[in-house]
From TrEMBL:
The lineage of its organism: unclassified sequences, metagenomes, ecological metagenomes. It is found in: Membrane. It holds the Pfam family Ion_trans_2. This is Potassium channel domain-containing protein. The chain crosses the membrane at residues 76-97, 155-180. Its main location: membrane. One of its GO terms (molecular function) is potassium channel activity.
């Protein structure tokens, strides 16, 4: 009796398992799809991470990332970038506005050697002369007694003036930040000289005002 009962119980248990699987088939299918999607997502994430690492190995990209970090973390560098950008924009505006004025100036000052055959000044010379005047004026350098004549000399002088403007901005910001930091550090200390000849009042009463007048 016991040997016949045991196979019957095993058959019954397997039947219950199959019935349970059929009832929860949709749940099993959903879990299977979730596992497949998770595995595919993991593979894609790994591929994206590897692609990002390969992308960062590019020297140009690495240099740009460092500049971005420096721009976000260093206030002086950020202010210098904005100052330099505003200076370039202002110089471009001056160049555009004053171009017509220097169009005639090129004819009288530069000479016929830079003109076309029809007697009109070369556009390149006129523009470069205007740009040179804008940079010299905006950087407050001034023309002085000695100034470059050739285009190459003016170009090198423009680069030096712009670099000088940026260096002065950085040095001025650095000195100002040091002075402000020292001032703030000094405010944290207790100055005992400020507390001589003072009266400390704890609480308030109408009679105190008349007492203070005495």
């Amino acid at each position: 009796m016991q040997t016949d009962k045991q196979p019957q119980e095993e058959t019954t248990s397997f039947g219950k398992i199959e019935e349970s699987i059929q009832v929860n088939q949709s749940l099993y299918d959903h879990l299977h799809e979730s596992l497949v999607d998770e595995a595919v997502t993991t593979v894609e994430d790994d591929a994206n991470v590897q692609h990002y690492k390969d992308y960062k190995k590019n020297p140009v990209v690495e240099y740009l990332i460092r500049l971005k970090q420096l721009y976000q973390l260093n206030d002086l560098f950020r202010y210098a970038i904005w100052s330099f950008g505003l200076m370039l924009i202002s110089t471009a505006i001056l160049t555009i506005v004053e171009y017509d004025l220097f169009y005639g100036d090129v004819i009288s000052d530069i000479g016929d050697g830079f003109q076309f055959g029809d007697g009109y000044p070369n556009w390149v010379d006129t523009f470069f002369h205007t740009f040179w005047w804008s940079v010299v004026t905006f950087t407050t350098v001034g023309y002085g007694d000695v100034s470059p004549v050739t285009h190459l000399g003016k170009l090198l002088t423009i680069i030096i003036m712009l670099l000088n403007f940026g260096i002065v901005t950085l040095l001025g910001g650095a000195v100002a930040s040091v002075l402000v930091a020292e001032r703030l550090k000094g405010d944290d200390k207790l100055d005992e000289n400020k507390f001589h000849g003072h009266i400390i009042i704890a609480g308030w009463h109408p009679a105190i005002q008349s007492t203070l007048r005495l």
